[in-house]
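Re: the request from the purification team.
They wanted to know what the chain is likely to look like in 3D before they choose a buffer screen. I agreed to run a prediction and write the result into the notebook, where they can find it.
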Amino acid sequence: MKSVKATKAYLLSLSVLSVFACGLPTAAVADSGALGSAASFGVFGGGAGMTSQGLHTVINGDIGTTADTTLVTGYHDLNAVFTETPMNIGTVNGTIHTAVAPAGSIPNAIAAAAALDIQTAYDNLSPAALPGGIDVSSLGGGAGELGNRTLAPGVYKSAPGTYAIQGGDLVLDAQGDPNAIWVFQMETSLLVGGPGVAFPQNVILVNGAQARNVFWQVGSHATINAAGGGTMIGTIIASSGISTSTAGNVDLVTLNGRALALHASVTLVNTNINVPGVTAVPVVPVEAVIPPVDPVLPPVVPATPGITLTGTHSADVIAIAATGGFIHIQNNGGHVAVTENGSGTINILNNGQLVTVTNTGNGVVTVNNTCIAAVTVTNTGNGNITVNATGTLPITLTYADGLDHVYP
């Protein structure tokens, strides 16, 4: 037998749902009635545009902005590519609408109509249009905390003005009614994930609940799982911007709903958005394509030049042969830096510390550094230089006279 308290809570949830369903036009129960021409949009960036980061963002629906195409970055649809890079590729399995696109449409008409309908939906979901929302603290727990809750259909208001889903998931229980509706009203922000950035959270639908019937009316900005991962449910309409995950995260964020911003941009990082009623498309990882770099330097002479580096310790070795010649290095000690801009061969065996050689002529330079010593050689002529550093003091050689020099 149900307790008196449980029975009252159940009756309260039914009465609230009845008030909500009667307070909105009948058509508002469906997506098309609540959002009008914006029903097909998975993302809308107001007049500020949209940005996608990462390789795994997929929007199963349309996206749009009343701004110019230059404010859409990291996306492509079947018609056009919008400022994608090898590391930022967002797939739109619909159409990207801006002030001037897609080609052949009346400039700004579709995006402008969607913006007006999103604003209308935002107003219709507000406390002014739907007063008497349930303060979740009356059901126990924090007034602005939705984590670790199971909520019946209804209109829910936030006493502190913010909502967070932290420390656990939010479960929405339709109690067998596929037309059950949830509206969450907040004056300022929505935060999903945490506490801390390492804990994504989820919204879970049970007993016939549907994503198309969940609405989030956000007075400022919505942040969805900044650490990546997790599944969010419902249509988010934010007065300011919306962001999912954070740049650099690879764990996929899933939003079964929409991210619609009125006056700021929408930034998605590796996010999959499934507009209710649109068939989801599996996310296939995209391999980064790095454009080839045209060679700047002329071909190396001789025909089979090379640089051979053998480092048996953790020392740094830097070798540059800009116009030809071999550089052979076996490094068992300190740092080695070699620049060879001629056609000569430089052969260095280093068992000590620093060795710096610059050869801009055609001579052959051989350096054997078998002890702790710093060797600096500058050869700007054509002469050969052989250095055998067996002591502990630095050896510095600078010659431009074209002669051969040997220093045992």
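For the purification team: Residues 307-407 form one domain.
Please add any questions underneath this entry.
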